[in-house]
Design goal:
Elements lengths: L8 E2 L4 E3 L6 H9 L1 H6 L14 H6 L9 E4 L5 E9 L9 E8 L8 H13 L7 E6 L4 H9 L3 E7 L6 E8 L2
Parallel strand pairs: 5-6
Antiparallel strand pairs: 1-2, 2-3, 3-4, 4-5, 6-8, 7-8
The structure holds coenzyme A.
Coenzyme A (COA) binds next to helix 2, strand 5, helix 4 and helix 5.
Length: about 180
């Protein structure tokens, strides 16, 4: 597996780190959330089990597994999860990886999503594998739209979302 993102990524309010067995219950609760199911889906990179190899996840049908990570508070509690997976949808180019963030409902709207994305983009800059970071934005999803605009992503097209049945906007940011 290509190491895309050197972990941990540290920031004042959170750490992006490897998932451990102790995170299972928190991640199960995260994926059970209605908005996460709608916008992120259940067959996402997040559902790779701790310690499970990408091959095993692939065998279970979770093919989009590159680098699941936990977003943890300084206390250690799981605030959310992040994935990077190869993007091969409309407008894809070699070195495109899609970033997906899902936060617990009670910590949304506190700039954690913005800060995680900025910290992860910084950590990816200069790395060997990722040329462009891709973000998919569901129609009318204001927090995600604000995020891509604030970080100067450019819209490159649209892509059907299998989970929501809607057409997502596809945004790209050159980082290398
Ligand atoms: C999408 C998500 C990651 C954003 O993280 P967040 O920490 O909640 O968002 P932030 O507090 O950093 O806000 C980002 C921007 O959206 C705006 N925003 C936040 N919540 C909003 C809301 N309910 N309505 C309108 N705008 C909103 C903020 O003002 C901010 O805009 P600005 O940068 O112009 O000031 C988070 O809400 C989430 O996990 N949602 C559920 C799962 C999901 O939909 N993931 C998206 C798939 S990538």
């Amino acid at each position: 597996m290509i190491t895309l993102l050197p972990l941990p990524v540290e920031a004042k309010e959170f750490t992006v780190r490897e998932v451990t067995g102790a995170d299972c219950a928190a991640l199960d609760a995260l994926y059970a959330d209605e908005e996460v199911r709608k916008y992120v889906g259940t067959s996402s990179a997040f559902t790779r089990r701790p310690g499970e190899s990408p091959d095993a996840a692939f065998q279970r049908g979770h093919v989009d597994t590159m680098r699941p990570a936990a977003i943890a508070a300084p206390t250690g509690s799981v605030l959310g999860a992040l994935s990077l997976r190869r993007y091969d949808g409309n407008g894809a180019e070699p070195g495109d990886f899609e970033i997906t963030i899902a936060l617990r409902k009670d910590v949304r709207g506190r700039r954690i999503g913005s800060d995680v994305r900025s910290a992860v983009l910084d950590a990816l800059r200069g790395g060997p594998a990722v040329r462009r970071v891709i973000a998919r934005v569901a129609p009318g999803h204001k927090p995600s739209l604000h995020l891509v605009q604030a970080l100067h992503f450019t819209k490159i097209g649209e892509q059907p979302n299998l989970h929501s049945g809607q057409l997502d906007g596809v945004f790209a940011l050159d980082i290398n």
